[in-house]
């Protein structure tokens, strides 16, 4: 699949079969995160792998009862170590670059999962303090995305997108 077709074929998947994901596949998904760009190559991303039912159930409760999280055989929580970025870039590092770096890693994982035939979804609606407690994160590590991943037998047709001419501006911002 060419890269644009892959990007357009990725869908948020919210139903999973509970077939286990082989270790080599988990490693490929982690490699996708490893090779994401990061500001100054600070690589502030930290990833928690969750496979136990107990932790998944806690995450469901932390994430506004989004039950599909516990259906997925693999759940990755993408976090950013804000200190790794702030030591080089100060406040811009911790409030912007670290977050952008984690977003880039998240998208790499979603696309790689799609290419490998797995469904996944970027879950951002969760109570941050509860996830911090569940995962026992230190104070410099912020959880930014929960990604449930697994095989799915359903691929929904995605919601539409704004037309390009509506959000792209020539030379400077023009109100539409
Ligand atoms: C920052 C962010 C947070 C999101 N949070 C959730 C979420 O909590 N639950 C969910 O089901 N989908 C969540 N999504 C997925 C979006 O709903 C989805 O990407 C969007 O509707 C477009 O659909 P598509 O991914 O199939 O193209 C989130 C996506 C992003 C980028």
Describe this structure in words.
With 176 residues, the chain is an alpha+beta fold. Helices cover 45% and strands 15% of the residues. It has helices at 3-9, 23-34, 53-62, 68-71, 82-115, 128-135, 164-167, and strands spanning 45-50, 74-81, 119-120, 141-150. The chain has a four-stranded antiparallel beta sheet, with helices on both faces. The longest helix is centred in the middle third of the chain and has 34 residues, at 82-115. The site of flavin mononucleotide has 11 residues, from loops.
> How many β-strand runs?
4
Question: Whole-Å distance between the termini?
Answer: 35 Å
Q: Tell me the β content.
A: 5-15%
Number of helices: 7
Classify the secondary structure makeup into a structural class.
alpha+beta
Q: Largest sheet, order of strands side by side?
A: 1-2-4-3
Number of domains: 1
CATH T-level topology: NADH Oxidase
> Unreliable runs, pLDDT <50, ≥5 residues?
none
Let me know the average pLDDT.
Answer: 97
Tell me about the biggest sheet? 4 strands, antiparallel
What level of helicity do the residues show? 40-55%
Q: What Rg is obtained from the alpha carbons, in whole angstroms?
A: 17 Å
């Amino acid at each position: 699949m060419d890269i644009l077709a892959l990007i357009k074929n990725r869908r948020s998947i919210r139903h999973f079969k509970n077939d286990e994901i082989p270790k080599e596949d988990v490693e490929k998904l982690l490699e996708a995160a490893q090779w994401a760009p990061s500001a100054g190559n600070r690589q502030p991303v930290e990833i928690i792998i969750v496979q136990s039912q107990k932790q998944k159930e806690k995450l469901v409760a932390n994430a506004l009862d989004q039950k599909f999280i516990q259906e997925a055989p693999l759940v990755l929580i993408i976090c950013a170590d804000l200190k790794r970025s702030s030591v080089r870039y100060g406040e811009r590092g911790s409030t912007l670059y670290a977050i952008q770096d984690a977003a880039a890693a998240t998208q790499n994982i979603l696309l790689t999962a799609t290419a490998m035939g797995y469904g996944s979804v970027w879950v951002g609606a969760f109570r941050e303090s509860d996830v911090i407690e569940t995962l026992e994160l230190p104070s410099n590590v912020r959880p930014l995305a929960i990604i449930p991943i697994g095989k799915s037998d359903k691929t929904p047709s995605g919601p539409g997108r704004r037309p390009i001419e509506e959000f792209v501006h020539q030379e400077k911002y023009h109100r539409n």
